[in-house]
Specification:
By secondary structure, this protein is α/β, with parallel strands linked by helices. The protein is built from 13 helices and 14 strands. The strands form three sheets. It has an eight-stranded mixed sheet, with helices on both faces. Strand 10 and strand 11 form a beta hairpin. Helix 12 packs across helix 13.
């Protein structure tokens, strides 16, 4: 059976903890446990008393109720808590996709579902976000990709790697087309809440009876080490996904479940998200001015959400070779656009602590000037 490797995750997993400067991360600098408890005004005692046994495998009632409260009309029974949003995407694809199914995926993208769908035997078609249209897809291309007989449509909003938020009109058009052909619509919303300006991005939830939403605490919340994600689905769907979850990680760690419930208490959640937005507002102008110093070398659109900036460069060197030189010779980890299906692009993460981020950019500048003049 064909296996499509997940090149981005293999690149990051191999090197992100072995370099001096990690500019591959798409979230903000992670909170420590102490910092989270301080934001919550909570004692560490309840955490220290968590038994190291098996926790409720689909998520505790408290955690699922706090997640359900984020989605109008959703009950805790419609929530499945997973080990990160990556597992959430996995169990959804496992539940829905059979060999020979047609799947439409927004491209470029974090290519997990793109690879999973092929690994489950599906025929996968992409519809492109266009740089010349500020990363909006073309209506007719989207409709063509979501052809009659399509089983599943996958969107990411806010989007990785571009940081784009779909217009209201395009959201409605995608939902309308999915409904026309009877397809399921999987919306990965893990960057929701990490907008630099304005309100949080509206969820796809509630727009269509076959919408499934995946989210988690890794990106907008700055809590990737908790490995907490979730699935929101129509009545009955999460139970079917839970049956697949029994074959994967079984359930979240009890300590992670406890801390996730702390983070999603409404008052604490707003503090956590405000911290994220504060980092984004502080750091984006730094990378914007840094990119401008290279003259016409780079072109990009300012991201609306996420600690990510997708940049196109003019030089002929491949992005795969460029990022390897930066890693090996300068200890800087960047993401090549090839891992999203975009040659001659680099994704910069800008969510680190400011002093460390500025040092990382200084070393990156030294390296890029060498690479671009060789």
């Amino acid at each position: 059976m064909r296996f499509v490797p997940f090149e981005l995750e293999r690149w990051q997993s191999t090197w992100e903890n072995r370099v001096r400067y990690n500019l591959s991360e798409s979230g903000v600098h992670p909170l420590s446990i102490q910092e989270l408890l301080d934001l919550a005004g909570a004692s560490p005692e309840p955490l220290l008393n968590v038994r190291l046994g098996y926790s409720q495998s689909n998520g505790t009632d408290l955690l699922r109720s706090r997640i359900a409260a984020l989605y109008p009309g959703v009950s805790p029974e419609q929530i499945l808590v997973t080990t990160g949003s990556a597992e959430a995407n996995f169990v959804v694809c496992w539940r829905l996709i059979e060999p020979g199914d047609s799947v439409a995926v927004m491209l470029p993208n974090y290519l997990q579902t793109w690879g999973l769908a092929q690994n489950f035997g599906a025929d996968v078609r992409g519809f492109a976000l266009r740089a010349e249209a500020q990363w909006e897809p073309a209506l007719e291309e989207m409709r063509g990709a979501i052809a009659p007989g399509t089983k599943l449509v996958v969107v990411t909003n806010p989007h990785n790697p571009t940081g784009h938020v779909l217009s209201g009109e395009m959201r409605k058009a995608i939902v309308r087309r999915a409904a026309e052909v009877g397809a399921w619509l999987l919306a990965d919303e893990v960057y929701q809440g990490a907008e630099r300006e304005g309100p949080a991005t509206a969820s796809f939830w509630g727009s269509y009876e076959r919408v499934i939403v995946v989210n988690g605490l890794s990106k907008a919340y700055g809590l990737p080490g908790l490995r907490i994600g979730w699935v929101v689905g129509p009545p009955g769907f999460s139970g079917e996904a839970w049956a697949r979850h029994d074959y994967t990680t079984i359930g979240p760690a009890g300590a992670s479940d406890h801390l996730a419930a702390v983070a999603l208490e409404p008052r604490v959640r707003e503090k956590v998200l405000e911290r994220t937005r504060r980092i984004l507002r502080s750091n984006y102008p730094v990378i914007e001015q840094w990119l401008k110093r290279f003259g016409d070398t780079f072109s990009w659109h300012a991201p609306q959400a996420g600690a990510i900036c997708l940049v196109k460069y003019r030089q002929g060197i491949s992005a795969l070779d460029l990022v390897e030189k930066m890693r090996a010779e300068h200890g800087v980890l960047l993401v090549p656009g090839d891992h999203f299906g975009l040659p001659h692009h680099i994704r910069f993460g800008f969510g680190e602590e400011l002093h460390h981020f500025e040092a990382a950019l200084a070393e990156t500048e030294r390296g890029l000037k060498r690479v671009f003049t060789d």
